[in-house]
Here is the input.
Amino acid sequence: MKKKIGVLVMSYGTPKSLDDVEAYYTHIRRGNPPAPEQLKELKDRYEAIVGGVFPLRENTDRQVEGIQAELDRLELPDAEFVCYQGLKHAHPFIEDGVRNMAADGIAEAVGIVLAPHYSTMSVGSYIKRAKETAEETGVKMSFIESYHLHPKLIEAFSKRVSAKLDAFVESGAPRDEVKVLFSAHSLPERILSIGDPYRDQLLETSEAVAAAAGVTNWQFTWQSAGRTAEPWLGPDVLDTMKELSEKEVRYMLVSPLGFVSDHLEVLYDLDIEAQDVAAELDVRLMRIDSLNTDPLYMQTIADCIVTECKKGA
Ligand code: FEC
Here is the structure.
């Protein structure tokens, strides 16, 4: 009989419905309920994207199915992988995922986050929670911390950048006049003082994708900074767009490399908020398509899992 290896696929999580936004936001705020105006503002953002539908849930479901299919296709002689979902801020939580594995008799598992870059505040906190529950339940777990330079990930992103640059050219824009803006979720500036690799990994991905797509006219910028009093990493994409437009840049291609799925931070922050700013500035803004279930991305994850298992064998 083949040995069953659990795969804990972790993702951010999204509310089930508009009624669930308050509980979700309270969880993000570590148990502190949001003020009524903060709650309204977040609900308005969800309502603005496809009328209050929460695409991240279905996208994560599909990604987990895609990863399972990719792992099944490998047909390893001695091992069989079984994927479980664990979400950071929604059901099934990370802890539920690990407990579900233990309840199914899984003794060994690998954990991976659907976010390619490591930060103590993002991927690190997913892993910490999974590790704690794994120790409690006796599941032997190892983790993939980052995969930001995996060749298939770089290929998937660079194909998307090239496709949108072609679309710019077809619509009459000179290719080398399109500024490619690689972006990722901002984090509080204090991560830099603790030697966090997040920013450097993002710059490495940007450089690799630019090289693969033959792009020299690019820069990195942050997006979606939290609404807290402390300083967050900048410049923000909206400020970058304003600054570039003052320098007569008229074509911009935003390429969110820190995200792998369509969700609020892409569909609202870029497709609505940044597009509104682009219209005010008379700038033509496009965005690369999200990876979602791109086979190259599914293969990236499957390959990381198998490589991690071989390390432990
Ligand atoms: O579509 C959806 O329903 C969920 C979209 C979503 C994704 C996402 C990814 C990341 N976040 C990261 C860091 C922070 C930090 C805070 C924070 C707050 C929010 C809020 C919402 C939200 N995030 Fe998020 N994030 C998404 C949504 N995020 C909503 C609360 C309102 C607001 O501030 O806009 C601040 C709170 C804290 O201190 O914890 C920090 C990072 C990522 C990318 C990596 C990952 O996916 O884990 C980093 C998707």
Remarks:
- Strands lie at 3-11, 79-87, 108-113, 140-143, 178-185, 218-223, 251-256, 284-287.
- The first strand starts at residue 3 and ends at 11.
- Residues 12, 14, 25, 28, 42, 54, 56, 115, 121-122, 185, 187, 226-227, 258, 263-265 surround FEC (CB under 6 Å).
- The chain has a mean pLDDT of 96.
